[in-house]
Amino acid sequence: MPDAPYGLALTLVVLVLPGLVVAGSPCESIEGLAEQIAPGRIFLLGEMHGTQQSPAFVASIACAVAARGLDVVVGLELATTAQGQVDTYLDSQGQPADREALLQHVTWTRSYQDGRNSVAMRDLIERVRRLK
Question: Does pTM top 0.90 for this prediction?
Answer without folding.
Answer: no
